[in-house]
Design a protein that fits this description.
This protein is an all-alpha fold and 114 residues long. The chain has 7 helices and no strands. The longest helix has 17 residues.
Length: 114
């Protein structure tokens, strides 16, 4: 889970790049734009200055978004914008799947699938 937390900046870059890609469905672009704004915003559900708990909301959002992207967006498109290696993305995807299990698959499919 620490790896996912450390990857939040890379994930934010990935989301910002995917949002402007013309191939991505509109619903996914809206969800990604909202996630980028939330991750970049100093206003959170749990303020970041609270040790550990301050980053839980960012971590859960990052996990849900990453899990949705990896399961429903074309992998080549994701790898085009991912700043790391494919192996690092796979490791993060496995961690994200564990944390994102509480979000129904059909909801993620509705948001991220074309």
């Amino acid at each position: 889970m620490k790896a996912l937390l450390r990857a939040v900046p890379d994930l934010a870059r990935l989301l910002a790049r995917l949002v402007v890609d013309p191939v991505l469905p509109r619903s996914a672009k809206i969800a990604l734009a909202a996630a980028v704004l939330y991750l970049a915003s100093p206003i959170d559900l749990v303020p970041d200055f609270i040790p550990f708990l301050g980053y839980v909301d960012d971590l859960l959002l990052a996990a849900v978004v990453l899990d949705g992207i990896l399961n429903f967006v074309d992998r080549r498109l994701v790898l085009r914008y991912w700043p790391g290696t494919p192996a690092s993305l796979d490791r993060l995807g496995r961690a994200a799947a564990v944390l994102a299990v509480w979000v129904p698959r059909r909801l993620k499919k509705r948001v991220f699938a074309p």
